[in-house]
Amino acid sequence: MHGTVLLSLILSPELGRFALAFACCLAGAQTVLPLWGAWRGRTALMASARPLAWGQFAALLLSFCCLAAASVANDFSVRNIAENSAVAKPLLYKLTGIWGNHEGSILLWALILALCGVAVARFGRNLPGSLLARVLGVLGGTALGFELFCLLTSDPFDRLWPAPPDGQGMNPLLQDPGLAFHPPILYTGYVGFAVPFAFAVAALLEGRVDAAWGRWVRPWTVAAWSFLSCGIALGSWWSYYVLGWGGYWFWDPVENASLLPWLTGTALLHSAIVVEKREALKIWCVLLAIGTFSLSLSGTFLVRSGILNSVHSFANDPTRGVFILGLLALLIGGALLLFGLRVHLLQAGGLFAPFSREGGLVLNNILLCSICAVVLTGTMYPPFAALLLGQAISVGKPFFDSTAVPMAMPLLATMAIGPMLPWKRARLTPVLQRLWWASLLALLAWAVAAFGVSGTLPVLAAGFAVWVIAGAVADLASRILLFRAPLRDSAARARHLSRAVLGAAIAHAGVGVTVLGLVGMSQAQHAIVSVHPGDGVDLAGMRWTLRSVRDADGPNYHAHVATIDVTRNGRLIAELHPSRRVFPLQHQTTTEVAIRTDLVSDLYAVLGDEHEADGTVVLRLHRNPLAPWIWLGGLLMAIGGFLSLSDRRVRVGAPMRARRGAVPAVPAPAAE
Amino acid sequence: MKRLLPIVFVALLLPGPVLAVSDPSEMLPNPAQEKRAEALGSRLRCLVCQNESIEDSDASLARELRHILREHVAAGESDAEITRWMVARYGGFIRLEPAFNATTAMLWCMPVLALLFGLGIAVWSYRRASRRAAPAPALDAAEQARLDALLRGGSVER
Amino acid sequence: MSGGDTSARKPGGASPAQTRRRVLALLPFGVAAAAGGGFWAMLSRMRTGGFDPHDIHAPALNRTVPDFALPGLDAAHPGFSGNDLRHIDRPVLVNFFASWCIPCVAEAPLLGRVAALLPVWGVAYENKPSDAAGFVSQTGAPFARVALDGSGRTAIDWGVSGVPESFLVRPGGIIDWHLAGALTETVVSATLPALLSRIGR
User: Fold this and answer.
1) ipTM summary value
2) What topology does it adopt in the membrane (chain A) (predicted)?
3) N or C: which end of chain A has fewer CB within 10 A?
4) How far, in Å, CA of B127 to CA of B135, rounded?
5) Tell me: the pLDDT tens digits for A203-224?
6) Best residue in A284, A285, A366 for a mutation probing chain B (most B CBs within 10 Å)
7) Dihedral (C-alpha) A214, A220, A222, A224: value to the nearest 10 degrees?
8) Does C1 contact A284 at a Cβ distance shorter than 8 Å?
């Protein structure tokens, strides 16, 4: 008790605010000094970037700890804590609730941005001095913008006098582990793309993009992309188990705001490989790096501005919106203007035939960016139509399902072929020879799907998904010369298979797994029934029997819990306990979904209204085949990304190319 | 796929908001009609909620619109007629999938436009790059003969 | 896309090809600037009230009132029908309310001031008659007539999406003006008088 009080006295909100202001100053120095030093060639100034980045991170960490201390110590004189926390809130949610509101989430953004700066300072030691200085300078500028925004318009340390005895933040709806951990992972993904952005701007300032730059950018892109994939998958999974009608993606503007940088980020990831290997696609890569971070910044702006119609809308304050818009104008406008003026300095790279790995990656980029353009247009059409034409148009799930989703089919088709194409110039026949059994499997999958699956798009997608997974396996098999060389040789090759290659294959397979999950979900069966206790319903070849509905009370709620037995041929498969909770103090009712998964399909039950008049109970029952695969696929994608990051060759930057024609000591890439 | 392998028992009981468990008495007795009504309803926006369809929302307006929708479906009206009925009262905003007209043309054509634009840029820059590459110098007769001989696999004649 | 311009730059003006490339390179900036300008316009108009992204622009304006006939509350507050509205000789404010709606309670005094300008006819949306009667007597809402729309169907025909909403109906049964929300001071003191003088009272 005394310890907590002492802690909260030392880590006071005033210290937190001071630390935030100090971080602003350091960020300002981190922006100006290294960029000036790089421009003028002053080594001392350039070298100041790294300690400044560390200092800024330390100050922000202190600030964040002060906010956490105030939350844990129930300091309701801090307005943010009074509005979002309460004495009775469990400790876990007091801590994770820090980022559950606008002010705290901006502070978290700034903290993660500073962490990225520190990571670059620590792991980018082998970067040339001027590039490192410029990258840290740009990161510092971005951080400065967010910290100023936090300090000036969204100060989490605002005081409230007189301090209320208890806070208002005991909303049971928001106390959920998924909701607690989804924001930091998602934000790490959004903010992580600031590093490739900084690299792109630094390259434009330097006037040079070369293979080494591609190699340096790639690990940061992979890291940010993996976190973003995880964050999106987590968000989708959370809405599935919370919302209670088996939905997992609604094409809500806030969800789209997370999908857009993911799409261009995937394109960026692949373009960086081409820049590294072939010094081609430089312009596109730089533009994608700027574009991806711009999209994640714009997403943050739009979600908080009140312009979009969304279930997730944050605090809608147009005044704050203006500040963020100004910040965006500086960062995005500045970067794109720099791009327009300096892109001609980037020298042309290698030529390649249209049918080659570079060509395949170009097609991949075109498809990803087109899908991105469609989703962006659909999301932005309503506000712009209202502004320019005074018409109220709404664009929702049906639109995106009929436009963006079919565009993913060609992408899936090329995903299996792409990794097998050689650089510069490829011929079709050898590639198809390596893919012959994958094609057979895909055709088989189409045949099976045509009978078992309803709907043209799900059938198509099923075949393509199997094609992608089989293609990933075929890629690995051909690299280890499986069945073409003695098994011992294959085994040796398999042991020495680079983690980057393995990671890429796993990530591609993950995409296929997710698509299979989506196809399965499209075939979900559900029933809404009104039954007496003791009655049963037949659904999906199983008998679902409502055994009882009993009362069960919790600390601050009164609950009805139903017991449902699911049997097949008399054998008990699962016992589900969906419930409804009434919180009298908050005048709220929540429902708890019961899900039983075996990682291949889900049994899903929700308890609805109870009619006292005739004693019937409304139940909503689902069987969702392959539903878990949607999120398992996302997890595989992230695993693939992190695995390829652990490959040292991906992480270690190549030494700077010598000025005059000497052969650079680039480690020879093996069979990639 | 129908066989369930009980590998993992994970009963997830987690809190959620009150949801739109539709009353089974709302549903039409004819399953084909009910399916049609659900499909049509999922294309109509709930006007009091943000970004939900009337099928997913539990607002009273949504419930009322669901009833009306099912009455019209049971009466045999076509999808277009029912949509027109709704739009006449609430405007185009009630459609989650916008109509195709001059205002929304750019929206609906965006997939094709984006693909064409991307392919166009790719083709243009490929042509520019190959034009920039210096053409190989022409071979004279002797060099051409040597090249032919090499390609045939024979030894080079001096 | 593989590259920039490696040829030596001419000392004089840029070649047309170079200008074309420069314009293309500045295209992303141009698009972003246009989008940014659009967002700025939206934000500034949101602050002044000229732009509401949640406005559904219901198409009721300048249309005849829908057909309906609803029962009244009691002798002092008879019901009315679409026909009645088509035969009014002076403008009428039709106000949709409900006893369970807090903003409706809050706007009742403003309704009182509006009643001095023109008759106010109320529609009780999804309310039991006793609850509607309680609302009228407790808030002192100045309805000359009250129609009971228990099912909410008539409200749907009017394009109502929630309560409170108000419609100004001019002689002939044409809907002249619609407010989706509670009355405000500006509406009562400025908007409505201006509309009434335009209609010609």
Assistant:
1) 0.84
2) Multi-pass membrane protein
3) N
4) 13
5) 999 988 888 888 889 999 999 9
6) A366
7) -140
8) yes
